[in-house]
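4.2 Preliminary Data

To establish feasibility before requesting continued support, the project team ran the inverse folding procedure on a target of 172 residues. The structure was first converted into the token representation described in Section 3, and no sequence information of any kind was made available to the design step. The complete token record follows.
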């Protein structure tokens, strides 16, 4: 069971990059629906994994996986952002006027779902730390809110990890 708990976030780390590979395969029209279906499964397993992690020293594991997944996904988010920036001027071409907003909406929805799924590890750790009395309610609320927005989720994840290493989980 312990190996499964560590394998699930590793799959989440790799998963967005598999989309890029899937899009460049010759038969991507056939593989893309499978990718979308399995994306839901991967996300559900990761949310389940984050909220059912055994208590004890594993809160450090939750904080570690939260930070690691978020840091490794930065290039993916940067690539999606760059693609979105390229799609905006493309709307000047009449053919892309209808396609670009739809594609941008799909990319934004996918990014938000991925971000919220990866944030479940951090939010779960924060809730546990609060229940154990290791962080204040104000600090817990701040970290939970930060985990719900782009960029600040990474900052919060790194801060949680840094504090867990420095102060041995006694937050202020």
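Position-by-position output of the design step:
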């Amino acid at each position: 069971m312990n190996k499964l708990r560590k394998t699930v976030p590793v799959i989440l780390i790799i998963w967005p990059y598999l989309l890029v590979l899937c899009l460049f395969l010759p038969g991507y029209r056939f593989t893309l629906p499978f990718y979308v279906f399995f994306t839901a499964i991967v996300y559900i397993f990761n949310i389940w994994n984050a909220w059912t992690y055994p208590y004890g020293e594993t809160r450090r594991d939750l904080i570690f996986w939260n930070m690691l997944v978020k840091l490794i996904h930065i290039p993916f988010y940067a690539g999606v952002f760059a693609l979105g920036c390229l799609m905006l001027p493309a709307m000047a071409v009449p053919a892309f006027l209808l396609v670009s907003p739809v594609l941008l909406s799909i990319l934004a929805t996918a990014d938000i779902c991925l971000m919220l799924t990866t944030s479940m590890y951090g939010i779960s750790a924060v809730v546990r730390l609060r229940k154990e009395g290791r962080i204040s309610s104000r600090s817990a609320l701040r970290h939970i809110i930060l985990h719900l927005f782009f960029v600040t989720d990474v900052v919060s994840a790194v801060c949680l990890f840094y504090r867990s290493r420095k102060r041995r989980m006694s937050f202020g």
